[in-house]
Write a structure and sequence with these properties.
The chain contains 8 helices and 7 strands, in the order βαβαβαβαβααβααβ. By secondary structure, the protein is an alpha/beta fold. It has one domain: 3-Layer(aba) Sandwich (Rossmann fold), CATH 3.40.50. It has a 7-stranded parallel beta sheet, with helices on both faces. Helix 1 crosses helix 8 and helix 3 packs parallel to helix 4. The termini are far apart.
């Protein structure tokens, strides 16, 4: 599938998603549905940049774990753009929760914000893409999950939810082939968290075989690969600089 003149839906993505969206607009994507939950200012800036590149934009605050809300915003975009060709499921949370204090409410919150939201978006859009004759869906997980390495403590429900996303990717890919190709990306050290101490930033780079943080452009390239390929579906691609080899 070519990127030119395609309509993109991006959930979340306040950090990495900005460069991904801009990269797609630079390649001719004509319209974007951007959803966010808390990052209003960042996403408004992104919308402006996309419009400056000639793309049409709908920007909405949406809790993508709520079925009615996600259905309404997708219907709004379809009414305005007449189609959605590409879905990027980037909305996610990453919250440390000490395992001995983990509650059902914690589990449900993490599962909803990392897996239920992905399910709802795919479940709504995949049938529409099939009727259109083609579509691409790209989900986002985590290199530790894709490598079956529960590397960091206190993330039980996060790990479980992201494993569910890998399962959703594979199952939906089979159900909606050949019209809709569905894959996932598992980022590794891409952009250091803003509150990560400098010594830890250096330590992570040193532990990565390629000896650096990747940068959001590496994810943008992976996204474009999955959009353009016509013979890869149900895959999970680790973009982690080789971290999974250690």
């Amino acid at each position: 599938m070519e990127i030119f003149n395609k309509v993109v839906m991006l959930t979340g993505g306040a950090r990495i998603g900005q460069e991904v969206a801009i990269s797609l607009a630079q390649e001719g994507a004509s319209a974007f549905l951007l959803t966010y939950l808390t990052s209003e200012n960042v996403m408004k800036e992104l919308a402006t940049k996309l419009e400056d590149l000639g793309a049409k934009v709908i920007l909405k605050q949406v809790d993508t774990s709520q079925e009615i809300a996600i259905n309404e915003v997708i219907d709004l975009a379809l009414a305005k753009f007449s189609k959605i060709d590409i879905l990027l499921n980037m909305a996610s949370t990453y919250i440390a929760r000490p395992t001995e204090n983990l509650t059902l409410a914690d589990w449900q919150a993490d599962y909803n914000s990392n897996a239920t939201n992905t399910f709802l978006c795919i479940n709504k859009l995949a049938p529409i893409m099939r009727k259109q004759g083609a579509g691409r869906i790209i989900n986002f997980v985590d290199w530790t999950v894709a490598s079956r390495r529960t590397e960091y403590p206190s993330f039980v429900s996060y790990y479980a939810a992201k494993q569910a996303v890998i399962g959703l990717t594979e199952a939906f890919a089979l159900e909606y082939a050949p019209e809709v190709l569905i894959n996932s990306i598992a980022p590794g050290p891409i952009i250091p968290p803003v509150n990560l101490p400098p010594e830890l930033v250096t330590e992570v780079a040193a532990k990565t075989p390629l000896k650096r943080w990747g940068g959001a452009s590496e994810i943008a390239e992976a996204v474009k690969f999955f959009i353009r390929t016509n013979f890869v579906t149900g895959e999970c691609l680790r973009v982690d600089g080789g971290r999974h080899l250690l």
